[in-house]
Amino acid sequence: MAETIKLVDVTKCDGCRACMVSCKNWNDLPSEMEDFHGSYQSHEKITANTWNVLTFNEQERKDGGLDWLFRHSSCLHCTEAACEKACPENAISHTEFGSVVVDYDTCVGCGYCVQACSFDAINLATYIDKNGKEFRKAQKCTQCTDRLEEGLQPACATACHTGAIVYGDKDELLSSAEDRLAQIKERYPNANIYNPQGISGTNTVYILADKPTTYGLPENPKVALSQIVWKDYAQPIGKMMLGATTMAVIGSFIATNLNKKNHSSEGDQSHE
């Protein structure tokens, strides 16, 4: 299977929020009422039940004019995902499409993934079981993996009428991103392609009109060394040691019972 990505060109976005609506509809996410933030932005940030938010930033140009800098903000589906590294239950993983998803049956709601994410793209949702007890599960954008499995596009890409969000072959879209960058450089001197290599790139790539921090994105995010050591070394070794210990206990149990059986057999023979 060819590698695929979602390419978001913020310079084509007109702030319609169709991506937000389509995401809510497809994923059957509940509405969330928020207080007025003093801007056109409907939600302050991504939440457990609002997986993508269109951010609004007003920027003054050198000629005195104003530009609206919009961004379709959602999970970037990092190649080296900090949330995946931080999860102690292996409830977060990559799919064949490069999307990062949560296994709700395995998730225990510890919140380590929330703390680890550099993009504040994953949050804990609260539920109540049949006995009235509250429990939590991590939730975020899945890049519509269920749609991808059926050969469909992510809902946000399908709904975007300006072509600001497209999904397709990785090499083709990265090439088109370079062409687009050359076209907009005159108007946006600081324009750049945001695909941070500190995390080996992302499955959602941006064409930004200004530096990443203008859009609330970290310049060069990285997975913490402690998370890498924990996930890639300490946890596997710990499981191996636990497995060895378990086998030793089982072996000891079997050996003890065999010895008892042998002694019992020898005792019976001595009485014959």
From TrEMBL:
The keyword Transcription regulation does not apply. [4Fe-4S] cluster 2 binds at C23, C141, C144, C156. [4Fe-4S] cluster 4 binds at C87, C107, C110, C113. The keyword Aminoacyl-tRNA synthetase does not apply. One of its GO terms (molecular function) is 4 iron, 4 sulfur cluster binding. Its cofactor is [4Fe-4S] cluster. It is found in: Cell envelope. Residues 4-34, 66-97, 98-127 form the 4Fe-4S ferredoxin-type domain. GO terms for biological process: cellular respiration; formate oxidation. Binds 4 [4Fe-4S] clusters per subunit. [4Fe-4S] cluster 1 binds at C13, C16, C19, C160. PROSITE patterns: 4FE4S_FER_2. [4Fe-4S] cluster 3 binds at C75, C78, C83, C117. Keywords: 4Fe-4S, Iron, Iron-sulfur, Metal-binding, Repeat. PANTHER family: FORMATE DEHYDROGENASE, NITRATE-INDUCIBLE, IRON-SULFUR SUBUNIT, HYDROGENASE-2 OPERON PROTEIN HYBA. This is 4Fe-4S ferredoxin. It comes from Cytobacillus solani. The lineage of its organism: Bacteria, Bacillati, Bacillota, Bacilli, Bacillales.
